[in-house]
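Hi R.,

As promised, here are both runs. First protein below:
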Amino acid sequence: MNLSSSFDEPARLLTIHYAGEPSLEEWKAAMLAAMSDPRFGPGIKLLLDRRLVGTPSSDFVHGVSDFVSLHQAALSQCRAAILVGGKGAYGMARMGQALLTFHGVEFEILESTTALEEWLRR
């Protein structure tokens, strides 16, 4: 399985861990499972940890944007971030950031564990 999730209750942090490059369908299933968790709700921190995988395709990023558009009400209530591991992944995350902002969902792009720690403290 390319995706798994964990929940840190004291931090109210839901993390989706990427062990391999998921298909869009696999990603959607993981997100739907995360969003159906009873702990998911307003004020939750959602982290997509992509450090271990490469650069997603533009088709994948557009598919994520379409999914977010359909689930904007739930996802706009989260603090979301993506942790990337390279310049290509950062560039695609910026493209995704622009698309998702259009749908009213904002997220931060983090490039290091130091940036992650700062984001978690805020």
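And here is the second one, sequence first, then its structure tokens:
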Amino acid sequence: MSKFLTEELFNQLKDLKTDKGWTLHNCIQTGVMTPHLHVGAMAGDEQTYVTFAPLFDKIIEAWHGHKATDVHVSDLNPDSVTMNEEQTENLSKYVVSTRIRAARNLRGFSLPPGTNNEDREGVYNSLTNSFSKLDGELKGTFYDLGKLTSEQSDQLRSEGFLFQKPSNTNLLFNAGAVRDWPNHRGIFHNDDKTILCWCNEEDHCRIISMSKDGDVKSVFRRFCELSHGIKDACGGGDAFMYNDHLGFIGACPSNLGTGLRASVMVRLLLLNEHIEALEKICTKYDLQPRGSAGEHSKAEGGK
């Protein structure tokens, strides 16, 4: 944001406002308050990317290499993943867990940084209704963040399912996404604990599919089924914020497009004793190694 927001561009955009009231000052607040973060601008609603396109198009091109005239292309068909049983078995020898996740936002509501309690409640009601309609392996339980018992909190936290209230040094806090915490926020997971959804955190819904092996295709299939299931329950076709240029819309420009992120946790037993060498290798391939306790830590228990 600071790289592209010149005085001339600031003056061009400073008096503009989206239909839901999001301004340039709102867009850049998180970058001004937390200058150590990378993007520096957040959207408050779907219209943000149109009203403030002269700024966001530059940020998006620098981040994604996606130009203002480009059309977004994605393939969310799990059959496009070519992975046979032998490959899955071999990968599972080294992979401890697989996660595929993406953010999805419901059309007609403000995004979390720009929302009010009424819109947040509307998202909450739509999503909890959609979760209740999921069946088969997707069927599960929704937990209201503000009504969790201490036992439920401890259990969800131990499994890595619980999101925390952001601190005042965090992007979400300074973007305005923490207002009325923890009202109308929550967590859903299925009975097998292979899917997880966060409601009203950075985006309306963070969809996560996971497994404790390297079966990437099955994890992606479950992700697609969950995404389609939520969309259909929320009204179908245009339920999610989406356009042909940017793809799926997210509060942060870094999550535009397919918005999908895939990760695996792998066993690297010999490199576990040589963290500096591991980090050097990962840097070469634009990867980030994480140990059991996060960055710059070893993996405990051989994982």
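A quick note on the second one: The CA atoms of residues 131 and 230 lie 7 Å apart. Let me know what you think.

Best,
J.
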